[in-house]
Amino acid sequence: MMNHLLDVQGIKKYFSVTDFFGREIYSIKAVDDVSFYMDQGEIYGLVGESGCGKSTLGRCILNLIPATDGKVILQGKDFFSLKEGDIKKLRQDIQMIFQDPYLALNPKKRVGNILMEVLIIKGVADEKERYFTALDILEKVGLRPEHFYRFPHEFSGGQRQRIGIARALLMEPKLIICDEPVSALDVSIQAQILNLLLDAKRKMNMSYLFVTHNMSIVRHVSDRIGVMYLGHLIEEAATDDLFRTPQHPYTQALLSAAAVPNPHIKKDRIPLTGELPSPMNIPAGCVFSGRCPYVRDDCKKYRPTLLAKEQTLSHRVACFYA
Amino acid sequence: MIRLNEKNLLEVDRLSVAFKTERGYLKAVDDMRFCVNTQEVLGVVGESGCGKSVTMQAIMRLFDERSGLTQYKGQVKMHGCNLMDIPFQAYDKIRGKQIAMVFQDALSALDPLFPIGQQLDEALRIHTDLDKAARQERILQLLKLVGINSPEDRVNQYPHEFSGGMRQRIMIAIALSCEPEILIADEPTTALDVTIQAQILDLLVSLKKRCDMSIIFITHDLSVVAQVCQRVIVMYLGQVVETTDVCTLFDQPLHPYTQGLLQSVPSLSGARQEKLFVIPGTVPLLNQIPEGCRFAPRCLYATSLCKETMPELEQIADGHYVRCWRCKKERSQS
Questions:
Q1: B45 CB contacts (<8 Å, ≥6 apart)?
Q2: Tens-of-pLDDT digits for all 334 residues of chain B?
Q3: What is the side-by-side strand order in the sheet with A6-18?
Q4: Nearest to A174 by CA among A42, A82, A72, A59
Q5: DSSP E strand stretches across A23-163
Q6: Reported pTM
Q7: A-chain residues within 8 Å CB-CB of B149?
């Protein structure tokens, strides 16, 4: 417990749906009792299909949306119990990179000002120093000094994402939450951005919480991976473990469904019938029981918890029969 | 150039599409040549802005050319007649009937104000002379064909009542309703989750066999190409840079752009790489198209010849066409 950079304990996020008078009709369990930890210098990949709550979880950790229940402990400090001012200070240690870099940048501000604003918040008093630090970071993320006075709309998608990354790095955070940072980019640009992120990590001993739906990207970047399904963490393992011996039926299906860029391999897909149920009516037992090919009676009655498998303690699965 | 044979269903010859802008006409697609064989899945890959969707929309004549905002040159031949010569009004008879299209975003392609049954009915009403009862029966048949359970209940539902994967199935049902010879699928699975993507890809491949049609599959995802296509066209900045069958493309890509694309995707098996291969630079804007080879500014092997003169799309091996000076030189040496 002691040395973890980030400890997420039992995070829950319920969105309540209310009627005309503000009475709750039902609640949508977007994230339900998720716990995991991250070490300094580690990349933790969070995968799952759309609607599984992976982005919501990322936002809850940053307290961008308040969690319903649970604790986020960053370097031994409980993030949620802090006072307003302290939260601001601690938040400097966690930054975020968003999926759509255009929406994340103020269209009315020049890139230089976007970056220097971060330094004002960080408390760099000297204007000259702010200017040179911002210029320096631009160069580090592969942009040129003349880009300093341009507006976000003058850039391509890949360049905008570089600006987003520059802004996050300026704060010299301990942890960056990357919410699908390359999903909106073309293949050749994706590789550039992934390399940039990994370079920055190596140089600054950064940690990333890497949220994505792309299995080959998560395999490339992550040290450990958590698989989410309907708001629950259903499997967690070191990257190579997960890809070699996936235990949960959902992980197995997810990996088998991912298309391989090789025409000679015709994979036997594990067919998943049906689609992700809506988070409004989550099955009573195991969340995956509705689509699981190996479902038994117990699965429909009781919900399995995330438990370590005997062989490797770091490999945790939420399934009775895995 | 590309030889005509009896297998060719559709032949596109030197097609170019230009859009009118303040700075004159911008060529989004230039000198496009390819053919579609019967009963095949032809993949068209390229990054955004390379003109893959524009080419298909030009074949479907979806741009209103009467306003003068779009200019076409070249020919699109099907059954020996040039589709580009057909008057715009008369093209309604072909669009949806002989060539049909499935779009990426099914929610915006379907009309939110009408139940899906009516939207399926529309195509049948225009293109066939079936009576109402026969059309109704055909609609239920189609929905069953694309894997929608209890179609009797679902025909009267609205698009928002379906999930993303189901909407895409409905789009496919509409496209198939008049038994087209060619189905153009424009990034049909890009907006979907992996498990749903797998379902839709399987569906398209099985429908191809059952309905005896060819599919043009537009995508930017090379792994999807590897799964479903027989032949592939790689596009860069409005031009075809390489065409060949899918195995050759993945085993021996010849154009530096194709090689770069294949290497920059992280793999799902084997050892994990430390660093991904990167194609330097970015795709230039359409009004800054380089002279000579369009890929030359980003190419590792570019010579002065590449920067000055545009290479032609030439046959390097049987059915393998490449637009590259280096490949041509290597072939003439060997």
A1: B52, B218, B219, B220, B221, B222, B225, B232, B233, B234, B235, B261
A2: 444 455 688 999 999 999 988 888 888 999 999 999 988 999 999 888 889 999 999 999 988 777 888 888 999 998 888 988 888 888 888 888 899 999 888 888 999 999 999 999 999 999 999 999 999 999 999 999 998 888 998 999 999 998 888 899 999 999 999 999 999 999 998 878 888 888 899 999 999 988 889 999 999 888 899 989 999 999 999 999 999 999 999 999 999 999 999 998 888 877 787 788 888 888 888 888 888 999 999 999 999 999 999 999 999 888 899 999 998 888 888 7
A3: A24-38, A6-18, A69-74, A77-78
A4: A42
A5: 24-38, 43-47, 69-74, 77-78, 94-97
A6: 0.86
A7: none
Burial class (CB in 10 A: 0-12, 13-18, 19+), B8: middle
Q: Comparing C-alpha atoms, which of B133, B136, B103, B130 is closest to residue B117? A: B136
Closest residue by Cα to residue B305 from B289, B323, B326 = B326
In terms of phi and psi (left: phi > 0; alpha: psi -120 to 50; beta: otherwise), the region of B218 is beta
Using DSSP, state whether B131 is helix, strand or coil.
coil
Q: What is the ipTM of this complex?
A: 0.80
3-state secondary structure of A96: strand
Closest-CA residue of B relative to A274 is B196
Which of B47, B262, B266 is the closest to A220 by Cβ? B266
Cβ-Cβ contacts under 8 Å, B199 against chain A? 271-272
Q: Which residue of B has its CA nearest to A154?
A: B285
Those residues whose C-beta lies under 8 Å from the C-beta of residue B189, and which sit 6 or more positions away, are B168, B196, B197, B200, B201, B219, B221, B224
Amino acid identity of residue A68, one-letter, is T
Closest CA relative to residue B183, chosen from B245, B98, B294:
B98
